[in-house]
Write a structure and sequence with these properties.
- The complex is a heterodimer of chains A (about 500) and B (about 375).
- Chain A is an alpha/beta fold.
- Chain A folds into three domains: about 240 residues, P-loop containing nucleotide triphosphate hydrolases (Rossmann fold); about 170 residues, P-loop containing nucleotide triphosphate hydrolases (Rossmann fold); about 70 residues, no CATH class.
- Chain A contains 18 helices and 24 strands.
- Chain A is globular, with a radius of gyration of 24 Å.
- The C terminus of chain A is likely disordered.
- Chain B is mostly helical and about 375 residues long.
- Chain B has a domain of about 240 residues.
- Chain B is globular, with a radius of gyration of 21 Å.
- Chain B starts with a strand and ends in a 34-residue tail after the last strand.
- The chains are: A alpha/beta (about 500), B mainly alpha (about 375).
- Chains A and B meet through helix 11, helix 12 and strand 20 of A and helix 9 and helix 10 of B.
- Chain A: It comes from Lactobacillus acetotolerans.
- Chain A: This is ABC transporter ATP-binding component.
Chain lengths: ~500, ~375
Amino acid sequence: MEKETKNIIEMRHIVKDFNGFKANNNINLTLQKGEILALLGENGAGKSTLMRILSGLLEPTAGEIYVRGKKVDIKDPTVAKNLGIGMVHQHFMLMESFTVLENIILGHESTKGPILDLKKAAKQVSALAKRYGLTLDLNARVADITVAQQQKVEILKVLYRGADILIFDEPTAVLTPQEVTEFIKILKGLAKEGKSIILITHKLEEIKEAADRVIVIRAGKSVGTFDVAAVSDDRLAELMVGRHVNMTLTKPQVKAGKEILNVKDLHVKDNRGIMAVKGLSFAIHAGEILGLAGIDGNGQDELVEAITGLRHVTSGSVIINNKDMTNQKVRKITEAGVAHIPADRQKYGLILQFPLADNLALQTYYRPPLSKHAIINHKAIHEHAEKLIKQFDIRTTSATLLASDLSGGNQQKAIIARELDLKSDLIIAFQPTRGLDVGAIEYIHKQLLAQRSAGKAILLISYELDEIMQLSDRIVVLHDGQASGEVKPEETSNKELGLLMTGAKTEGTNHD
Amino acid sequence: MIKVSPKIKRILVPIISIIAGFLVGAIIMLIWNYNPIQAYSSMFASALGNMNGIGETIREASPLIFTAIGFAIASKAGFFNIGLPGQAQAGWLTSIWIVLAYPNMPKIILLPLAIIVGTIAGALVAGVAGYLRAQFGTNEVITTIMLNYIVLYTCQYLMQQVMSPNLRIDTDTTKNISSNGSLKINWLTNMFGGSRINAGIFLALVAIIIYWFLMKKTTMGFEIKSVGANPFASRYAGMSSKKNIILSMLLSGSFAGLGGVVQGLGTYQNYFTQTTSLDIGWDGLSVALLGGSTTIGILLAAILFSILKIGGLGMQTIAGIPYEIVSIVIAAIIFFVAISYVIGLLFKTKDKKNNYQQPQRKERGPNNGIDGSNIEVGKKGQI
């Protein structure tokens, strides 16, 4: 019996069959009380299916789940909640106009008769926050607090509901390096207080830093469970992908050529009409990758939309290939030599209800050979798709498969194939590897470096510092719509970048 | 739950909706002591039992095909065009007027002219809603429904106050058009036992082919579908959303206008004061929904609707069932089509894992208001 209670969760031989497709195929997972278990796997490996089963969103086809030694049937999320299982989602589910406290108690309000008892709730929440080191201003509006603080709100929300088994889904995707360090401290604090934690992530170093054990899942099967201390990064990556992965990129020497993009004193407003890009200037040359680092929401979206013609430029100029392209139409800018890999691939990059072939033709459908005199040549579109599928190794059953049926990595490959096929001089890659696994990231990084070698200018905007550091020739740090510094990757550190990203050093750096 | 492939589900859902509609109709008839078997057999007998009935059924289907295509094009672009009655009415009045004004022009000029003018009139009415949508993000459901009233009363004003009295019999009815502007074909009328069948059905079949060609084969159709499916990705790919919004509404209105033209130059041969929005507009909407906006679907659904309408008259005369009951049966079928989502729940599609979310369409694009209507129509063809 003692042994049973040590395993707070035991998932045995879990199978989830989606009409013949086994998303989970005989997975075993044990979570011990007070430990941090990392769940590692490629996209589509079955991580989220497994966690959805655990949180009652899906029912397993076969297999058994034991919670605290007792066999349970988690048939809906309420059962999961009552068992003390709580999930912190990647995309926060908060009401922006509500206060922190209101968000935390939402749905679990303590009341005096019909009247909300905020005082009592505040007391309980403060006690919880204090105990787990989650310092927060309970009366601040969620809209006014940082992303890292919002995450704390999410954690408190789950704790307030009495969860002692916490599942975190890619929790650090939106955080700065400093915030990540703090987050891991919080995680460890939670574990120390006896909470059991499952951490879904694809970042190997976080696993190293935070987790006690790691379970690797590949193609719906568990490859194995390891003590983190006893396994190397390279080994983990290899286990996850199923082949050897080259973790360190070799960046060939490329001599920067002529200027391709020149952005001068750019001012752009956001949707609310507030200036989001405030006098930004930079240039990119052929054969150069300019990394734009910064925390999400510091003007990145507006900058990219302004360059690509999706958003009106208030003042300043965008010069592409020596031609003034400020406030030109999207298609004119594309034709002037701009390829754009958008940050949100499902919203901007693809039409999910359309077949892959049509999506691959999205930038070129209107001109020969894909169409002639406004009549579409479906045969040409199909051939064009087949060519790109082969060339870029898009894994699909056919060119007519709907884009929504592709895995995330292959959706991104499709966008990259379409955009690189434009053979544009400037490539704007906005979060090109977001949510992708190691294998796909490796592929995309290689593609970008190959484009650099081919003399293309590349603007890489990413919230992943490692990506920026690995690929960039120069790094501009964006804070509050302005450049807070320009550094070279070999002369800077994550720490310095992190400080620049928070605007701590606004006077540039010593590296100039 | 029955497991079927999505394709079969697409066919089964409307069929079950139709059967359910007929069953509800039968129950209603039983409640009021009418014999549903006798009623339905007299319905089919009068709609399809003789050449005259078949001719009338075909005649009734023709304008519905046009208005249904009109609705389908707009819905592909993400709009809910419920201004079809007004657009059809504009086409009807203007085409009749042209023919009345130039009764002696040679048929080869007059007939095409009247058709074109009616088409343009329908397009312009829809174009107003399209322009407002593109320029100001106005909700097209509201503008098109209001335009129905505007057109309804404008037509009355134009006919009673502007049209020369020489062209009218009385304030409510125009004279009949000359044969130079008529869609009537004598041999066809004779073949179908003197029914009002006319060349409208040929135009409708051509329209279906044009609709198919437009959507499947042209860059214009590709853009319209893209804007409807994902306005954000379309803008990103350099398509002009404003252009496509207006274009799709103009096309939608053109087809609706043609529906009115066929009704005028084919069925009635004149124009008379309308007191409510045209039936063919509303029925066209239902036909497009029932047919899943596909070419074959629209054709079959239009025929079903005209069987109900023409057969309904037979139910009334042969089986003595009030036309109101017939209307209830038709309404019941539309009702079941409208809740086809619920009927769809009977089936478990053999879908592959589909964890990816559709792009959210609530958000507004940066420079325009092309968030599309919130009413999802004809998505994956399963209304």
